[in-house]
């Protein structure tokens, strides 16, 4: 087999979800948008449901429809993009809950599906989705008369707890929702970690459940093992890979492994990234190709059968740092070619 194996530890994801849940006194939802951050919404969603999650968040109605097929009736599935034109049938038939984010969406929703549950997104400062304070003031009474099931907003800087934006958004959210008799939600992973002021009635952790920053003590969820296709001796002064940019300065043993930037191993991470073999780091040699990567395994003293890019020795945030990005992008870039293996209880 020459494709790499991506192992997704559902036990670890569930353990992370439970630990984040135990940090609050309120309900904890599961965020499974973008195919559960690239890990497989169906399997991940079912694992969270078995662990007791009753509320799920997705980005778009199509994801909600697929998740409903996987989970069956019962769990609440809420859609961040709200009620978009053409979605009424899907929302109605599959019992999805749109989080309407503008006055237009609210009108569309109550006209198309009167009496069907919905939530409301408020903008407390991120300026991405949701009603602005002025808009909300104007429609608040009319909107509340339609019985929304949730009022929520999203934090722009929750991974930076000291950022003044957090307290500002918290103040705005409190002001905008004062006196409401509706469930409220503000916290993503970072919000959960910032403490009970941010928890309200429902939290929405995503990245933390998948083992990413800012939940730095999370259990790692993904392991990526990449087979070695061949090993070769390279003499001092010879180059490895495209552009002949990497010239070895001593006789070296180079392993060529079977994955590349087409699998989401971002080319930019190459110069700062190692692979791992039984606890020992071996550096990438030369540029990352589409389907192949050269790795300098001289230090191992033997030819490995496979090398590990993600695992206990090197997590998604280390790779993200090396590529100048965030763990979210590393996870959601994980390639479609990998053989996916799920660890379950
Ligand atoms: C993605 C997202 C979340 C989850 O955020 P994490 O940082 O992954 O915990 C929560 N709420 C909204 C609105 C989101 O878009």
Write structural notes for this entry.
This protein has 345 residues and is of the alpha/beta class. It has 2 domains: 10-210, TIM Barrel (Alpha-Beta Barrel), CATH 3.20.20; 222-343, Beta Barrel (Lyase, Ornithine Decarboxylase, Chain A, domain 1), CATH 2.40.37. The chain has helices at 10-22, 33-38, 41-51, 61-71, 88-93, 103-112, 133-144, 164-177, 189-193, 316-323, 327-333, and strands at 5-9, 27-28, 30-31, 55-58, 76-79, 96-100, 119-121, 150-152, 184-185, 202-203, 222-234, 239-240, 246-247, 252-257, 274-277, 280-283, 293-296, 306-310, 339-343. The strands form 5 sheets. Strands 3-4-5-6-7-8-9 form a 7-stranded parallel sheet. Helix 1 (10-22) crosses helix 3, helix 3 (41-51) packs across helix 4 (61-71) and helix 10 (316-323) packs across helix 11 (327-333). The two termini are 26 Å apart. The model has no long low-confidence stretch (mean pLDDT 97). Bound molecules: pyridoxal-5'-phosphate. Residues 31, 33, 80, 154, 188-190, 204-208 line the site of pyridoxal-5'-phosphate.
What descriptors fit this protein?
345 residues, alpha/beta, TIM Barrel, Lyase, Ornithine Decarboxylase, Chain A, domain 1, 2 domains, six-stranded mixed sheet, elongated, binds pyridoxal-5'-phosphate
Helix content: 25-40%
Structural class: alpha/beta
Report strand %: 15-25%
The CATH architecture of the largest domain would be Alpha-Beta Barrel
- Compute the number of helices: 11
Going by CATH, what is the homologous superfamily of the largest domain?
A: Alanine racemase
Main sheet overview: 7 strands, parallel
From the spread of the alpha carbons, the general shape counts as elongated
Residue ranges: pLDDT <50 for 5 or more in a row?
A: none
The CATH topology annotation of the largest domain reads as TIM Barrel
Radius of gyration: 23 Å
User: Biggest sheet: strands side by side, in what order?
Assistant: 3-4-5-6-7-8-9
The number of domains is 2
Assigned CATH class of the largest domain: Alpha Beta
